[in-house]
Amino acid sequence: MEIHNFELNALSGEPVNFSKYNGKILVIVNVASKCGFTPQYKDLEELHKKYRDQGVEVLGFPCNQFGKQEPGSHQEIQEFCELNYGVSFQMFEKIDVNGANASPLYDYLKNSAPGLLGSKSIKWNFTKFLVDRSGTVIKRFGSNDSVAKIEKEIKKIL
Predict the structure, then answer these.
(1) pTM (whole model) above 0.85
(2) Which domain does 39 fall in, by range?
(3) Could you list the active site residues?
């Protein structure tokens, strides 16, 4: 399986085939509306606007597995993101990133770029994965890693 073979539903319920991201640089992040890291939405949106014309896409995946910090419905999540952070990047339906019901996309990401000491599990909200144009997962960034740190890596592969 490679990244461009996945298909997941957008917040609107419409299926999104990842083949549309072939040739693009992706920043894939599990998000939550009620987290201490939620202000990263602002930086992710700025990154998206700054680099989308150069083929960079930010993909947000709401997840309620960490402190139940994403309790809202798909519509509530969409409204929160638009009203509070002007999010225009692609947001997807809520998923699990760990455990028996983890999205196959996240199993793929975790296996491709393990965390600290080879850990596979996602530790918290706003863990970010950088994927190059060919679909190779380049790096995992933790919740504390700033979007500026990711931007430095993006510039290397642009």
Answers:
(1) yes
(2) 3-157
(3) 35
